[in-house]
Design a protein that fits this description.
The chain has 282 residues and is α/β, with parallel strands linked by helices. It contains nine helices and eleven strands. The strands form two sheets. A six-stranded antiparallel sheet has the order 4-3-6-1-2-5. Strands 9-8-7-10-11 form a five-stranded parallel sheet, with helices on both faces. Strand 1 and strand 2 form a beta hairpin. The radius of gyration is 20 Å and the shape is globular. Bound molecules: adenosine-2'-5'-diphosphate. Adenosine-2'-5'-diphosphate binds next to strand 8, helix 7 and helix 9.
C-alpha cells in the first residue's frame, strides 16, 4: 500500500504545460477591478520582500505561424520572502491583454512565473532610520503586503506607517484585511515578540467615495493634516525613510515632496532615504 501510493500520486500529478509553470492555489475577488491570488513557489526561487517578478499566461496563437508567445507583466510579490507560496494582487482591466484573462484563473490552473526577482522597494536600498513610511495607491499596496510580513521591517524600525489611497472603500479591503491578519498572526508574534504589530500605523484614504478619511495623500501631506492626524512631526531626513508605490503621477508628486523635505532617493547600489517603484498596470 505505502509502496504503491507514491507511484499512483506521480501518475495522477498534472504535467506542467507552460514554461516556468506554477499552479494557482487560491483566488479572491475584492471588487470588479481588483483580485488577489496565490500560487506554488518555484523551489529554487529566492527573493527579497518587496521585489517583483514577471508573471503571465500563454498568449493567443499567431494567426500566421500558429505559434504562441508568453504574455508577461511585472508584478510585485505580495507575499513575504519566507512564505512557501507566492501571492499577487492585481487590477482587472476589461480590455487589458493580460488581466482581462488573468482575472478568470481558478485554483488548479497554471500561470507562468519567471523566477528572476528584481526591484528597489527593498530594505537594502535604505540607510538606517527610526520610522518607515509605505505610501501606496491602488494595487501599489502589493509590495507592502510583502514588507509588512517581513520580520526585518520590525527589526529595523520603531514605527511603520502605511498609507493607502484608493478611489473607493471596497478597494481598501485587501490591505485592511491583511493588516488585521498580521495583528492576529501568532506565528509572527512568536517570531518577533508579542505586540510587534503595535508598530504599524495604518492610514487609509479614499478620493471618490465617502469614508472616515478622504483626500489624496499628497494633499494631506501638503496641508500637514497627515502629520496632525498621526500626532507626529513632518518628514525628517534624519529619522524618516520611505517607500513609494503607485501610479506615475503619484510617484512623481511624492518624490518632489520628499526632495523638498531633504530626503534623497536610494537604490540597491546606493542606499539612501527613500525608494520608488511604479505599480504596473496592464
Ligand atoms: P483620484 O481619485 O483623485 O484620481 P487610480 O485608481 O487611478 O490608479 O488611482 C488610485 C488612487 O490614487 C486614487 O484615489 C487617486 O485619486 C489617487 N491618485 C491618482 N493620482 C494621484 C496623484 N498624482 N497624487 C496623489 N494621489 C493620486
Amino acid at each position: 500500500m505505502t509502496e504503491q501510493s507514491p507511484v499512483t500520486q506521480e501518475k495522477s500529478a498534472k504535467v506542467p504545460t507552460l514554461p516556468d509553470a506554477q499552479t494557482v492555489t487560491e483566488v479572491k475577488h475584492y471588487t470588479d477591478r481588483l483580485f488577489s491570488f496565490r500560487c506554488t513557489r518555484p523551489a529554487s526561487l529566492r527573493f527579497r520582500s518587496g521585489e517583483f517578478v514577471m508573471i503571465g499566461l500563454m498568449g493567443d496563437a499567431d494567426p500566421k505561424t500558429g505559434k504562441q508567445k508568453p504574455l508577461l507583466r511585472a508584478y510585485s510579490i505580495a507575499s513575504p520572502a519566507w512564505d512557501e507560496e507566492m501571492e499577487f494582487y492585481s487590477i482587472k482591466v476589461p480590455d487589458g491583454p493580460l488581466t482581462s484573462r488573468l482575472q478568470h484563473i481558478k485554483p488548479g490552473d497554471e500561470i507562468i512565473l519567471r523566477p528572476k526577482p528584481v526591484g528597489t522597494l527593498v530594505h537594502d536600498a535604505l540607510i538606517p532610520g527610526k520610522r518607515i513610511w509605505f505610501f501606496a495607491t491602488g494595487t501599489g499596496f502589493a509590495p507592502f503586503a510583502s514588507l509588512l510580513r517581513e520580520p526585518q521591517t520590525y527589526e529595523d524600525y520603531d514605527e511603520i506607517i502605511i498609507t493607502h489611497t484608493c478611489r473607493e472603500l471596497g478597494e481598501l479591503t485587501y490591505g485592511r484585511d491583511l493588516i488585521e491578519s498580521i495583528r492576529n498572526d501568532e506565528m509572527l508574534a512568536e517570531l518577533m515578540g508579542e505586540g510587534f504589530a503595535d508598530k504599524i500605523r495604518y492610514y487609509p484614504t479614499t478620493t471618490r467615495e465617502e469614508s472616515p478619511k478622504m483626500g489624496r495623500i499628497t494633499d494631506l501631506i501638503r496641508s500637514g493634516e497627515l502629520f496632525e492626524d498621526l500626532g507626529i512631526e513632518p518628514l525628517n531626513p534624519d529619522t524618516d525613510r520611505a517607500m513609494i508605490c503607485g501610479n506615475l503621477a503619484f510617484n512623481l508628486e511624492l518624490k518632489e515632496l520628499f526632495e523638498e523635505a531633504g530626503l534623497e532617493e536610494g537604490a540597491n547600489s546606493k542606499p539612501a532615504q527613500y525608494v520608488v517603484e511604479k505599480a504596473f498596470l496592464d
